[in-house]
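so i finally got all the pieces together for this one. its two components total, 224 residues if u count the protein bits. some of the lines might not be protein, just check the labels. i wanna see the whole assembly predicted at once instead of chain by chain like last time, that was a mess tbh
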Amino acid sequence: KNEVEQSPQNLTAQEGEFITINCSYSVGISALHWLQQHPGGGIVSLFMLSSGKKKHGRLIATINIQEKHSSLHITASHPRDSAVYICAVLVGSTLGRLYFGRGTQLTVWP
Amino acid sequence: KAGVTQTPRYLIKTRGQQVTLSCSPISGHRSVSWYQQTPGQGLQFLFEYFSETQRNKGNFPGRFSGRQFSNSRSEMNVSTLELGDSALYLCASKKDSYVNSPLHFGNGTRLTVT
């Protein structure tokens, strides 16, 4: 069983729609990352959360530590948001040891 | 400020050979971690280094090894390559050991083993 479960695996939306990607984890964590990966492979860290909620532009990330659940929301989605979104949890007090979800492939059509 | 630089970007090797991948972290960053991404297994943690010391290792065979130099640059080595080692290898750097320090990824090295 994977320590990190993401849903949905694939998501298709029309431009302007509100998007939600969910992440559940089964282990105690120090922090949770939401990552974005475009074709070609490079990964960008969108958010790092240990509690509450963070907002950056049209992106919002929330985490509920008690329920071991996090969500990534994209408001007013745009075709340039098309990418793979990956949830990753940092376990223990280690430096960079992450456990990853399998990712959500988001495609936004104009 | 330059980002995390991984070289080479693409690599083709034959089964049984060995390969060395390089990662230069952001200037001033002391932590480097390595990850393997395959279609079958997704992203998996390989190992992490801080101040030239390996602090953690994932569940990979001993053919996978790494090191970090005094300038924080890191290399990973895979010996006796297998077809299943074909993957995107990513490294990431952090400034320090704090949990809340941002993580910065490189663009990866895509290794193909034939």
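The first strand of chain B starts at residue 5 and ends at 7.
Chain B touches chain A at residues 31-33, 35, 37, 42-45, 48, 50, 55-56, 58, 88, 90, 92, 94, 97, 99-100, 102-108, 110 (CB under 8 Å).
anyway lmk what u think
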